[in-house]
Amino acid sequence: MNITWAILMLALGGVGVQQEHHQTEVAAVLQSASGIALQADQGFRGLGGASPAPSGSASAPAASPSASALPESPAPSGSPLPDASAPAASPGAAGAAVHTDPQPDAPKVKGIYVTAYSAGGSRMTTLLDLLDKTELNSMVIDIKDDAGYITYKTENPELQQMGNPQKFIGNINELMARLEKHNVYPIARIVVFKDTVLAKKHPELSFVKSDGSVWSNGGGDSFVNPYNEKVWKYNVEIAKEAVKLGFKEIQFDYVRFPEGFEKRADSLKYTKSDKSRTEVVSDFVQYAKKELTPLGARVSVDIFGYAASVPAAEGIGQDFVKISKNVDVISPMVYPSHYSTGWFNVKDPDKNPYATIKGSMVDTHKKLDPLGSYKPLIRPWIQDFTASWLGSGHYIKYGKQQVQDQIRALKEQNVDEFLLWNANNRYTAGVQY
Questions:
Q1: Is 372 part of any domain?
Q2: CA dist., res. 187 & res. 193, Å (int)
Q3: Containing domain of residue 416, as a range?
Q4: Which of the residues 75, 150, 257, 345 has the least number of beta carbons within 10 Å of its own beta carbon?
Q5: Is residue 361 part of a domain?
């Protein structure tokens, strides 16, 4: 099945999402990479939030494979922010640029996603017990969530003014002490440009329609403008505070323009420059790394698993290689349920997690190996949920065997780290990690 057919199938049937982590971003990146118009990301949330009810055709595919893309050469960024064409690095003995890991003593991360609600509630006891009794050793915790809420009560007046801090995590310092007591490697998740809170509070930082209202997608989510450096600095300031609180790594998510942006770029009002969207997004990533590395924090970015196999998504501004060469860790989302018939010669990828993960890692290495010393640590998001929305005959119930099959495929491709995704933070028991 080629990319055009997959996109048409998506447009006609829709893709139901139960464990929603960027399900419709798949459609967005394929649309942007191929230039085919497609209504995507309508009504679905990203990494955070509870499981919505299935929607659309039960048998509609998630996406279809495409030829590999050639990376673009990034252009320099405007002063005073950095140039993404020059990877963030430290000078070597002879003055040559050499990538240095800000967390050289970090463990091999085997982690889980934790919502702010779980982190601040009774479920945290269960999750910590899971880590205590297994080889899992890390948590990715929402510090700025999909709506744009800072998830704890910050004392920083700038962050209070820009955002709308909540008390989802009642006592952030107590949480950090608890994580340290249990030897948990803490990663702060920050949703960057998908930010309804900031967009509504400061429309000048967002995309505005001709009637003066803030643009939102079919799900009611608004984005802020990646061209606006004030938005960059706001998110990096949140990241800096997270590091000061004790987080060892910052994981940026939704590092992109809105889905299908190329179709509305000329009709919306927003600040922009003559730089391409991929340049702007990559420049933000390098700016963030430049600011956070001196604090001893790793920088990681979530990105489509598909991005290793498709051309750069100009519409939403994501280029796998440009982003990867300016981070310490790249986390492609390679859930088998997000691939459709034809990927890696597998009829139903969700039913063959081993082959799907193996194929995705082969493509990822091919895409990133040319970066040489700038190749980031690959730490994929893998599936610990059942994709029942795919319809009878196209999915299987995920349990111990399916999770272990994914981990086995990663290890065989020399990928020793991973993150488990389950929107409700209910992870499979008895897995050998």
A1: yes
A2: 19
A3: 3-68+108-421
A4: 345
A5: yes
Domain of 350: which CATH number? Answer: 3.20.20.80
pTM metric for this prediction: 0.83
Q: In the chain, how many domains are there?
A: 1
Q: What is the pLDDT of residues 219-263, one digit of tens each?
A: 999 999 999 999 999 999 999 999 999 999 999 999 999 988 999
- Residues 43-72 have pLDDT tens digits of 333 333 333 332 333 333 344 443 332 223
Within a domain: residue 56?
yes
